[in-house]
Amino acid sequence: MDTSAGSVKQYSIVQHRYGAPGEVLGEVASLRLPPGPREVQVEVKATSVNPIDWQMIEGNRRLISRRTFPYTPFFDLAGVVSSVGSGITDFTVGDRVYADNEIGGGGAARYVNVNRALLAHSPERLDLAEAAAVPLAAQTALTCLDVGEVAAGTRLAVIGASGGVGHFVVQMAHAAGAFVVGVASARNRDFVMGLGADEVVDRNATDLVTAYGDRSFDVVIDTAGGRSQWLQARRILRPGGKFVTISRDEDGVVTPMSAIRMASTISARRIRGAGRRGIKYSPVFLKASAELLQRVTTLIDDGKVTPHVAQVFPLTLEGVNRAIELSRTGRAVGKLVLAR
Question: What domains does the chain contain, in order, with CATH numbers?
Fold first, then answer.
């Protein structure tokens, strides 16, 4: 067990204040601190960009989670164990690992200390760039399936099936034996079918109500957001069906008023769905954990789930800005990765 890492200089990409990424991110020297008793120090080899990353950098979510600056961004990370805390017995120096480091971030650091409760050995089938695409999105996807109780025979519609979370949902649901209908643009039809979808609906040409009729699904998993998804789901879901969503009705800055509206909307929809035959409204807020990530790892190593990496950028300041710019367009298929 190596606990000898000292306080030596490293270079990290750091956020100095809230604002546009190109204006508030910079590369600076920072301290490499030894891990605490229940921490594992990781030499970061790769990270990935999720929309929540740049939303947090811009300050759109500061009402929910305020940052202390300087802050090293990006939640996902994959790398190699460089040191372990005194209470760690199941990781050793040189192990390949990955995590969603939650509020600690650090994906853009050279070295980061990660709580053992968030860390897992990375899948044997993946290199570290591929592994970095997994933690946040795949854990979110698996949580959606758990909340929706997706199982063999479930009729499931996945809105945003080609995206970072959506492409994991489709694969996991297919592995569970569900009948999966993906909603995506026509250009991504073959991609979504290749993930294991039974059918694909072109979101620009038709909708699920027109294509399948009322009361035709057991579960809808929404990764796109917008009030229209809920209104559509109320028609296509059978009595007792579940609408599981990772998104809000409206994007943009979370203000006190928008937070009140969001809480009121969630409460009203849950009340409306009360009772055995009501349509259940279930927003998902990820609680990352080593146990959840290990379940994802097993699915990957069993060949049931594979992350799709749309593009790999260098883990440099220029690469970060380019990756965020592409992520903001919403047109990336799968995940965007930054690697050294």
Answer: 8-134+307-339 (3.90.180.10), 137-283 (3.40.50.720)
